[in-house]
From TrEMBL:
One Gene Ontology term from the biological process aspect of the record: fatty acid beta-oxidation using acyl-CoA dehydrogenase
Domain Acyl-CoA dehydrogenase/oxidase N-terminal intervals: 17-111
Pfam families linked: Acyl-CoA_dh_2, Acyl-CoA_dh_N
SUPFAM superfamilies: Acyl-CoA dehydrogenase C-terminal domain-like (SSF47203), Acyl-CoA dehydrogenase NM domain-like (SSF56645)
PANTHER family from the UniProt entry: DEHYDROGENASE, PUTATIVE-RELATED, MEDIUM-CHAIN SPECIFIC ACYL-COA DEHYDROGENASE, MITOCHONDRIAL-RELATED
Keywords recorded for this protein, A-Z: Oxidoreductase
Gene Ontology molecular-function annotations: acyl-CoA dehydrogenase activity; flavin adenine dinucleotide binding
Acyl-CoA dehydrogenase C-terminal domain: residues covered: 233-347
GO annotation, cellular component aspect: cytoplasm
Family per similarity comment: Belongs to the HpaH/HsaA monooxygenase family.
Listed name of the protein: Acyl-CoA dehydrogenase
Species the sequence originates in: Hymenobacter lapidarius
Amino acid sequence: MASPAQAEAAAAKLAPRLFAQAGETDVVGAFPTREFDWLRAAGLLTAGLPARLGGAELHTPAATHSLLKVLQHIGRGNLAVGRVFEGHLNALQLIQQLGNAAQVARYAADARAGRLFGVWNTEIPSEGVHLEALPNGRYRLRGAKTFASGAGHVARPLITGALPDGQGWQLFVLPADARPPVLDSSFWRPLGMRASASFRADLTGLELGPEDLIGPPNAYYRQPAFSGGAIRFAAVQLGGAEAVFEETRGFLRSLGRTDDPYQRQRLGEMAIALESGRQWLRGAADHAARPDAATDEGAEATVAYANMTRTAIENISLDMLQKAERCVGARGLLQPLPFERLHRDLTHYLRQPAPDGALADVGRFVLDGKHFEA
């Protein structure tokens, strides 16, 4: 695979297969191992790398539209797979942006070997991860991360930790296959996204070398990459909303309810909402690729637009779920039909951090008289 278009085609082809398998892995504590074997075979685990390292160039701003389409296709197939896959692509992108040449080459080789990456950032402040200094630039870790998606299966999680003496937050890669954290699977008793294995991971006592540190302190929180990255999970969510739409349409056809005017009206509204989401992603991709994205003004606009996009797609997805429920009724929410699982997974995944703050950031941007021209 050597181009963004090929990555899109591979993801689109894989989505129905992922959907057909999704019910089998919808178990608390399970992980879609077989599905990630399919992603690996399709070349999608390396798609976020440059062509010279065996990828499809999805890491470039110019390929953002293709990146979002890939994520949308995978989300349409299985939201739990999409959640972990988005973290994998995010981690590879951060390593390429912040790591040195030797680190980029080393971790690209890991991706080609089929190792999964992820980003573990969420923590409870009272038990968060700290780096304690040792001789020769080494550190010992103390503390834990929560919602560590893919725990036990992600071999190269990219993790944030607090440096000593208030020096800031340091990003590092943990070789979790060689230095595994202690996992608490009892933490993960979710409404949905059961198969994402988002356990609590205790890193206490593990050690790092200087070669494991990625970038300078606080680099992870630089804008627009930090908040602007919300468009990736929004793309996965819209894929889930698309699956809801497609299954609703198929259900009504199977019952011969296509002539009901009220069902037609609801499907029309759902189609408009879905297309609105696609347009939001196109706009977000345009902003991510804008030539001045590295400037303060460009970064601010990109972040504000990303916050609008995530908010709009959250609202679109919630509306899609409500209309689908009215279309299919109680009968449609019985297993083994997929609506019950889709509802749980999408509802859970829509709960992303700081939704009110994201919307308030948009309000501040426009109240300052600023504009969104891409």
